[in-house]
Amino acid sequence: MISIDDPDDARIAVYRDIRERDLVGREGLFIAEGEVVLRHLLASRRFQTQSVLLAEKRAAKLAPVAAALQPNTPVYVASQRVIDAVAGFALHRGVLAVGKKAQAADAETLLAALPGPATVLVLHGIGNHDNVGGLFRNAAAFGADAVLLDPTSCDPLYRKAIRVSVGAALLIPFARMAAGEDPVALLERHGVQPIALSPAGAERLANIAPPPRRAVILGAEGPGLPAALLARCRSVRIPMAAGFDSLNVAVTGGIVLHHLACARPEIPAR
Known about the structure:
Blueprint: E1 2-4, H1 18-22, E2 29-33, H2 35-43, E3 48-55, H3 56-66, E4 75-78, H4 80-87, E5 95-100, H5 107-112, E6 118-124, H6 129-141, E7 146-149, H7 159-164, E8 174-176, H8 183-189, E9 193-197, E10 203-204, E11 213-219, H9 227-230, E12 234-237, H10 249-262
Parallel strand pairs: 1-4, 3-4, 6-7, 6-11, 7-8, 9-11, 9-12, 10-12
Antiparallel strand pairs: 2-5, 3-5
């Protein structure tokens, strides 16, 4: 472990002003925040850990975790004062790491690699990082095999999305569809039946017998999914109290994925 006592030390420059730099991107890198997320990053086969920055109060506990890093991966240790000055805010968790993004898989390749029975989560126009993080967390909890994102959905490797997902964004295989790519045709080419969620869905969720290969398509809160897309899918609704027809999209995803998981003989281990 390498001690750092100066917030302006060039060796930890990549961690400086985290929030502001999140907005402009990190040129193929991402920030992992918190102990659980760090553990998932180290366990991931898809992402490489470039460095770790720990508060002094966390260093002893995380020494065994740091020992699992690849040789020559630096682990920096600093006081809470230095950590907060570098990050630009009070970083109570005291655990940061820099990961390198893997080469992005295309949607065709990801779907072609699915097992026989499979569950896919498709995100259409989800522009809120908290919602994306929550959806990835649900996908991991209920055994989804993959996540597809349209071009307008936000990056699941944005720091806040990873944090809200509790590291699930580092575990679930995902791919971004190309601009103009038809999600329904894409899914059907791989024998995956699209199930679209809408308050006006034709079927109640509790009444559907899920097909063995299925995709749950979720749209943004407010506008929802385009009518043209809904018309080509099996549309499903979650019954709610009279006079109210709105759920947070991450909550919706959790309910639907739980229903599908209960119909599956066994949830795959992560």
